[in-house]
Amino acid sequence: MLAWLRIIRIPNLATAAADALAGYLVIAGLRELAWPPAACGLAVAAIIALYAAGIVFNDVCDAELDRRERPERPLPSGMIDLRAAAIAAAGLGITGLILAGGASYQIAAPWPAAVASILAGCIWLYDRHAKGTAVGPIVMGACRSLAWLTGMTAAGGPNAIHEWMIPVGMGLYVAGITLYARDEAAESRQRTTLLAGAVVMLAGLVVAAGFVWLPDRGPIELAAGAPMPVTTWLVLWSVIGTSIFYRLAIGIGDPEPSRIRFAVGNAIMSIITLDAVLVLAACGEQWAIVVLCLLAWFLFFKRLVPPT
Length: 308
Description:
Elements (H helix, E strand, L loop, with lengths): L1 H6 L2 H19 L9 H24 L1 H7 L4 H4 L4 H26 L3 H20 L5 H19 L6 H20 L10 H18 L1 H4 L6 E2 L5 E2 L1 H24 L3 H27 L1 H8 L1 H9 L6
Antiparallel strand pairs: 1-2
């Protein structure tokens, strides 16, 4: 069981859930805590299943390489059979598409299913062809954008420019992580690649912040009805960004594999916090805390299996 938890990177599934949930909440603008509509739950479950499918399929595609470079992983070590992993990846992918179809049925619109189908195609493209190429980080970033959009379309959006800034920005952020994390198991690193990844991540955070400061965005109101100045929100966003880039800078200064893995793991975990802060701007503090609670999932399972 531990091997299966490792092959699906179970800590990282919390970030997928956070993206889809936050996407729904940002569009729906829910203010009071209540069980969300079925379309929300189906969209979140669909993204979790598709994310897990992509992670397992990634290891299936890397089986030969892992036998040489990472023989301790579940597939090369023989803890999980290669054929069983391939079947699991296909089953998870089909399940995700069915769940997205359920979300489309609930809202009587095709968009969640359509976006999830494009996401499935991007997952296959990345794992099978794009990984290791110049377009690899772009495809991976697109996958994260589509995860956000699956939740957003389940709520009937996005409908405005400032809403589109979030999936674009978070996609750039994850593209930067992917670039930064390239060959993270290698003994030596190219600082230019690390720096380029950090710059792309910074660009993503700047773009996502446009959700708040673009002119067509209304004022930020907390659940208690108290307004939050945009400058206060931007300070909070900047503090989180600074903590992320501090760890990235350590890896750039000393590109040792363990430092790189630590910085990448922190950047991945921070997706949940960033999602929660975006929800804070749209729905107030109550729903932001709900999203933030997904950190407990990440941290608990991180003690069992590595997120990278």
